[in-house]
Design goal:
heterodimer; A: about 425 residues; alpha/beta; UDP-N-acetylmuramoyl-L-alanine:D-glutamate ligase; Protein-Tyrosine Phosphatase, Chain A; 2 domains; 6-stranded mixed sheet; 15 strands; about 35% helix; B: about 230 residues; Rossmann fold; 6 helices
Amino acid sequence: MLRYAPAVAVGRLVRWVARKRKPGGGAAIPGVVVNRLAPGFLPQVLNSFPQGLVVVTGTAGKSTTTRMLAAIVSAHGKRVFTNPSTANIAQGLTSAILAQSTITGRIEADIAILEMDEGHAAKLSERAPADVCVLLNVCVDQVDRFFDPQLVTGMLSKVARATTGPVIFNADDLSIVEAVQTVSTERSVGFGMGSALRSTQLRNMGYVRPALAVTPPEICGELSSVDGRRASLRLDGVDADVHLPAIGVHYGVDAVAALTAASRVLGQDYDPVLASRTLSALDPVFGRGETLTIRGQEIDMVLIQNPTSFRLNVNSIPAESDCVMIAVGSDVRDYAYLWPVHLDHLSRLAIAAGPKAREVAIHALYNDVAVDSVEENLELALEAFLALPRPSHGRKTLVFSADSMRRTRRYFDLAEQGVWES
Amino acid sequence: MGVVIRVAKLLPALTNSQGDAENAEAIVATLGWLGRSAGIVSCDVGSHLSPCDVFVLGHVTESDFAAARDQVALWADALLASVSKGSIILAVGSGIELLVSIGLLNGVVRPHQSRSVTDCVVDAEGNELWGFENSACGYLRSDLERPLGVVLAGIGNGDGTEGVRSEFGQGLVLATHLHGPVLVRNEELMDEIVSRATHVSEVTVNTATGQRARSLARENRAAMIALTKRS
């Protein structure tokens, strides 16, 4: 690792300069520089953890599942290295490493548990195969990159084939079932919903190919029921009840994925009571059903990353909420693929914001949702949102794309408040 | 309200990954703003296809293409009959290839050298259309077919033109590589379809919601065209 010391030193210098120039921003730049200077650095570090590398990938739920899994493994006494949810591509991973490594690039941790973008996970698996991988789902996402969901299935299949140990997979998603076809049955460990939940909820999960009319493969982790934030599940024949970080069946699926993975990562050391207790104590990941206080106002923060998360999250906003702002940034290359999400669940939209503000407003109006104002400048929109009177029902809700989330976080200096960073 | 205008979404489960099927909803919303009664007919794999005033057939990904082609083949007679009697069909992306497979279009679908994933601006007889294309293939028109316009930015059909406009009996076939709510983004196309479906020569939206939505769409298109031309 000593040979990477010069690259690490340059990366740290870049990080220092980036932070000076743009407080709270520029986080990926050191990773870009180091990956270019020393392309072997990232795989080398990922291969260096004594108890291995765990990769969590798939379209939706990566951040929540990773956070749950990392917390559970950490509670069992392991030193865990993990990444912030916004750093799941190669440059972000390298930046996250630079933030914690020694000058030679060594991370003082027993195990790495990382969420990875599907494309980057497949590419990295050539040089840094996972010891355990968790494959969550395939939903429509970033159609300019992943124009055919079959491409994503192929990427996840590559991750699964490269993985040396257990492959934890979502048995309710046929794309995922196909991706693990070449993995031996001894190594493949399924999770999914119980039959009652499948019959009512599977159709709503946003999977491109939900396993609706087929008998799912045998599973080890089963989500039996979800009632508000309470979920009942069964892992290897043992029942458990957990408290989810936020309301939504998808959080229950994330929880059963995380617990199933934890049991395989920890093996004999796995303590089901400790695992459930740890999971139940978690706060939401930033923007995933989280409530923050900004200038004395409680605001629900909702991150949308693709049509599935947009649909699930908009539908979970109470119908009577009358103070909702949706901000979509230039990270959404073409807004068109969000049109299949019907917004008519909302009673009205207070502000359509961000570089795609007009597209958000047009979408809402065609869905017969009244739009009070349209503001392309996100900072002005955030100020206008805070200046709105207290809503007649519930809290103000801010729905944003990843880029708008980052800008919002920076604008309100939220890096230290409620934001989970590695 | 008069006669209910029927707008069919063909294979919505397979053709909406880029929002193409939402054009059907947008047509119904526009007709509603005009005070006309309209409804969506959703036609999935295995459905019987009954005559409709407008059909929308979006892009199908490669992995689902064979299933879509098989289903469209089963609907071929009904579709050809309906369009020849005056219906309109809008095809987006690989929906063009599906129409070729049943003879509603007579050109040839040709693969691009590399996939075109970009904003596209088209000069359509003086109106500039805008949309986002995400296509592996272009289209070589037959002699009887006209393009929607000339490409000013982007790839389109791959020969400097974009889209297809073809009269079929008393009906109309419109096809484009511009994904998502192309009719929302380009009201000239929406108005042409609505005008033919309602047999009204001029489309005038008077409701406040409709006017605002269309005005925002015009502003957005102008901004996107300016941005695309600059880049």
